[in-house]
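pls read this protein:
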Amino acid sequence: MNSSEKKNTDNYMAHGLCMKCKDESNAYTYCSSGSKLTVYDEFRDIMPPGRINRYDCVEVRFKNNHKDFYRICGNLSLSPGDIVAVEAVPGHDVGIVSLSGPSVFRQMKRKNVDPKNLEIRKIYRKAKPTDIEKWYASIERELPTMKRTKAIIEQLKLEMKLNDVGFQGDGKKAIFYYTAEDRVDFRTLIKMLADEFKIRIEMRQIGARQESAKLGGIGSCGRELCCSTYIHHFQSVSTNTARVQQLSLNPQKLAGQCGKLKCCLNYELPIYNDILKSFPDASMPLKTKKGRAFHHKSDIFKELMWYNYENDAGNLMAIPVENVKKVMRLNKKGKFPENLEDFAISKENKIDDDSVSSKEDLSKLAD
């Protein structure tokens, strides 16, 4: 398989279609393994009581970057994997049902979508062979259109980067996804694209994280990027996330391929926040007759807090959490122990590492 065929295969898989699962007509068929937006439905084997069609909304996924809720018209019976024609402006789009039944309403509640909202778009029908043929033809146009558009952008010398092109199922409209640091005047570009491709053009700017999700790649962990494999809802990541986990504040280590803070920094944050609730306030210094000591770092797994005297910053003392609380209780009563060494279990010399970074460098990484 050459590079052109591979790119075309990847493009079909982005739509949830897999050439490894061709049917007897030698056409691409739906394959849930080709999409990061596949949903596990815990109610799939449970028949709902009463009328089967009383759940009149389904979740439909499109080109591996978004999915939406649609209302079923009439007595149409749909199940995950069905290819459907849905309402769009203008014309219609083609997508794949990813979720149906009671699980849809749980998803709608989670995403704050009112099932009774009259503005929810409709599903016209199950896709006819002619609809699917047009859909396939639209998919085939995406890569050539993207290549030609990049050439036009270079010709116009626009400061923007084209990431992806997605055609509507009926081929009447195309969405061009791009990234840019500054505002771009692409009125001339839209005019040239409309004249050349004879379609309706929509330019949609995306962020650095969405760009990485579309392009994919391998992370520092050696695995595919989380954003390109299963994350479809991005949560903001701040530098405080790294501080809570006692990570080295080094932009080179904390940044992902998108240039922003790694999404995986959020994975263990709730555990750290929960455990740190049992730790004493780290902003309070420990007072002894030898002098005041300030907090340097914590180890939540060993339940240790590291302190150093204000006049001896090079020496760190590992003190169990219970002993820190004991010293704080003595301080509140106005009592000061002779030193902290009596409460510590070990000492070490402070080693300067690469964690010293400017606040400006770190703030650029945060969302």
Observations:
- Residues 1-34 form one domain.
- The chain has five domains: 1-34, 35-127, 134-206, 212-273, 278-349.
